[in-house]
């Protein structure tokens, strides 16, 4: 698990405090869907998601934005052990929603840029570095269950085949 | 993912607005790249000071953004326009091309910070595509 200094925790909380979940949730999808339009493949049932205006007024995307940012809130508040908490979320994205994990990295970039528009100079290079460390940990936690499930090993019995061929 | 006519127009219009801040953008982007992605420092071991806003960072930031401005002017044929820069990066500097993406991301962060209202999602995607095209042109001579 990633290690955090007191200073880094303070910085991450400081950035997160300034995030308005309602405001940023919609903007986040506007950037993600316009800048990386192949993400649209996961939003077939969301209606009109093809222009900035449509995206910002789409209630399904607003709701999903809140869900994503609530999950991020969990990570901020449990910064030392959210990887375990994210395991089922990761499995869900792998097995049910079938999201290419590279999209987590793309979404993280969009989150940073959306926050940069809001925080401006408050997002100093040092603050950006700590925030990036945090988002990288989130991306890693989201990617953690993208692997083959371990097959249960059959208990090995002593070999009994000689019984077939013995002269009794 | 080549640049459409609309992309080129968006880039040129946005660049006209921001070019006077070119040096400041370059300095800040480079400072962030070195601070946020410390593996990039390996290319600058010959500098005394790698901290944000230091003298060599300011000077080099200006150089880099002058290159970006040149690329805007040559946006219709980046491959031939940036040929000598590509040779420089390929044969002399030998910068791993994965770092172009890192610097591009930091340029976009700086643009978001400095021009939050102008840096709409449409401008964002055009600039992202443009910087990716510049990176491709710079990688041309690598192998």
TrEMBL record, chain B:
<dbReference type="InterPro" id="IPR012292">
    <property type="entry name" value="Globin/Proto"/>
</dbReference>
<dbReference type="GO" id="GO:0019825">
    <property type="term" value="F:oxygen binding"/>
</dbReference>
<dbReference type="InterPro" id="IPR050056">
    <property type="entry name" value="Hemoglobin_oxygen_transport"/>
</dbReference>
<dbReference type="GO" id="GO:0043177">
    <property type="term" value="F:organic acid binding"/>
</dbReference>
<keyword id="KW-0813">Transport</keyword>
<dbReference type="InterPro" id="IPR000971">
    <property type="entry name" value="Globin"/>
</dbReference>
<feature type="domain" description="Globin">
    <location>
        <begin position="2"/>
        <end position="143"/>
    </location>
</feature>
<keyword id="KW-0479">Metal-binding</keyword>
<dbReference type="GO" id="GO:0020037">
    <property type="term" value="F:heme binding"/>
</dbReference>
<keyword id="KW-0561">Oxygen transport</keyword>
<dbReference type="InterPro" id="IPR002338">
    <property type="entry name" value="Hemoglobin_a-typ"/>
</dbReference>
<comment type="similarity">
    <text>Belongs to the globin family.</text>
</comment>
<dbReference type="GO" id="GO:0005833">
    <property type="term" value="C:hemoglobin complex"/>
</dbReference>
<dbReference type="GO" id="GO:0005344">
    <property type="term" value="F:oxygen carrier activity"/>
</dbReference>
<dbReference type="InterPro" id="IPR009050">
    <property type="entry name" value="Globin-like_sf"/>
</dbReference>
<dbReference type="GO" id="GO:0042744">
    <property type="term" value="P:hydrogen peroxide catabolic process"/>
</dbReference>
<dbReference type="GO" id="GO:0004601">
    <property type="term" value="F:peroxidase activity"/>
</dbReference>
<dbReference type="GO" id="GO:0031838">
    <property type="term" value="C:haptoglobin-hemoglobin complex"/>
</dbReference>
<dbReference type="GO" id="GO:0046872">
    <property type="term" value="F:metal ion binding"/>
</dbReference>
<dbReference type="GO" id="GO:0072562">
    <property type="term" value="C:blood microparticle"/>
</dbReference>
<dbReference type="Pfam" id="PF00042">
    <property type="entry name" value="Globin"/>
</dbReference>
<keyword id="KW-0408">Iron</keyword>
<protein>
    <recommendedName>
        <fullName>Globin domain-containing protein</fullName>
    </recommendedName>
</protein>
<dbReference type="GO" id="GO:0031720">
    <property type="term" value="F:haptoglobin binding"/>
</dbReference>
<keyword id="KW-0349">Heme</keyword>
């Amino acid at each position: 698990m990633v290690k955090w200094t007191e200073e880094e925790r303070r910085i991450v909380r400081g950035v997160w405090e300034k995030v308005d979940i309602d405001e940023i949730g919609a903007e986040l999808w506007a950037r993600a869907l316009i800048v990386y339009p192949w993400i649209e493949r996961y939003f077939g049932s969301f209606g009109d998601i093809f222009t900035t205006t449509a995206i910002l007024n789409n209630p399904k995307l607003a709701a999903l934005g809140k869900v994503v940012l609530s999950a991020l809130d969990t990570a901020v508040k449990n910064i030392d052990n959210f990887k375990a908490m994210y395991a089922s979320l990761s499995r869900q994205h792998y097995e049910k929603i079938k999201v290419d994990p590279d999209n987590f990295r793309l979404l993280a970039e969009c989150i940073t840029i959306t926050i940069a528009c809001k925080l401006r100079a408050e997002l100093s290079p040092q603050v950006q570095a700590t925030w990036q460390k945090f988002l990288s940990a989130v991306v890693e936690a989201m990617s953690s269950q993208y692997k083959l499930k371990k097959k249960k090993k059959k208990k090995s019995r002593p070999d009994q085949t000689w019984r077939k061929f013995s002269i009794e | 993912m080549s640049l459409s006519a609309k992309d080129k127009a968006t880039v040129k219009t946005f660049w006209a607005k921001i070019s006077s801040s070119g040096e400041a953008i370059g300095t800040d982007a480079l400072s962030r790249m070195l601070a946020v992605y410390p593996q990039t420092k390996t290319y600058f071991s010959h500098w005394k000071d790698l901290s944000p806003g230091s003298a060599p960072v300011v000077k080099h930031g200006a150089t880099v953004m002058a290159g970006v401005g040149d690329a805007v002017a040559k946006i219709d044929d980046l491959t031939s326009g940036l040929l000598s820069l590509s040779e420089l990066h390929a044969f002399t500097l030998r910068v791993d091309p994965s770092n172009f993406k890192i610097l591009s991301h930091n340029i976009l962060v700086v643009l978001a910070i400095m021009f939050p209202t102008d840096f709409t999602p449409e401008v964002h995607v055009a600039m992202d595509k443009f910087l990716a095209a510049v990176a491709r042109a710079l990688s041309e001579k690598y192998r």
